[in-house]
Amino acid sequence: MMRKLLVWPLVALITLGLAGCASDKKQTTAEIEDASVGAGGVSASGLGSGSDASGQVIGSQAGTVDDPLSRRVIYFEYDSSVLTDEGRFIVEAHAAYLANNPGMAVVLEGHADERGTREYNLALGESRGAVIGELFQGLGIDPSAIRVVSYGEERSVALGHDENAWAMNRRVEILY
């Protein structure tokens, strides 16, 4: 009996000690984006930005903040798969890069915010990716080099439940 009385306070003390060691710092979206892009605009996944397979920089602005090839995320309005003018500019720059590198393939990952059903968000992510894929095809990219994948709300980059977080999650990521 005495042993049981000593075990519970000891368990509580250990639990409190472990909880005190836990970090409650949340990563902001900017920190996540900064961590995923290394020097020269090359992502941590090894996918280059603005360079060809040999690592040669393409274009006079490649590697700069103004270089549209350094931007691989296209954002959308709520419940929409219509490209903004800025999104179209970025997609056109990537299409020109892909046209100059015909051996490359591109994956378009469509995403949605958490609002709506799982099925609806998967369809919306697919629609967003398809819009960019169709624009790529219209700009001369071989359809067999384009793959659209939808993750719906499953791969959020911002975990909040407010308009800022939702806006960050309504996107298509261009991967090649």
Which helices and strands, and how do they pair?
Blueprint: H1 2-21, H2 29-36, E1 73-75, H3 85-100, E2 106-111, H4 118-138, E3 146-152, H5 163-169, E4 171-175
List keywords for this structure.
alpha+beta; 60s Ribosomal Protein L30, Chain: A; four-stranded mixed sheet; 176 residues
Task: Write up this protein.
This protein is α+β, with helices and mostly antiparallel strands and 176 residues long. The protein has a single domain, classed as 60s Ribosomal Protein L30, Chain: A (2-Layer Sandwich), CATH 3.30.1330. It is built from five helices and four strands. It has helices spanning 2-21, 29-36, 85-100, 118-138, 163-169; strands spanning 73-75, 106-111, 146-152, 171-175. Strands 1-4-2-3 form a four-stranded mixed β-sheet. α4 links the parallel β2 (106-111) and β3 (146-152). The chain is elongated. The N and C termini lie far apart (65 Å). Mean pLDDT is 77; it is low at 24-62.
Second-tier CATH architecture:
2-Layer Sandwich
CATH homologous superfamily classification: OmpA-like domain
Shape: elongated
- How many β-strands, per DSSP? 4
Strand content: 5-15%
Characterize the largest beta sheet: strand count, sense, and whether it forms a barrel: 4 strands, mixed
CATH topology: 60s Ribosomal Protein L30, Chain: A
SSE class: alpha+beta
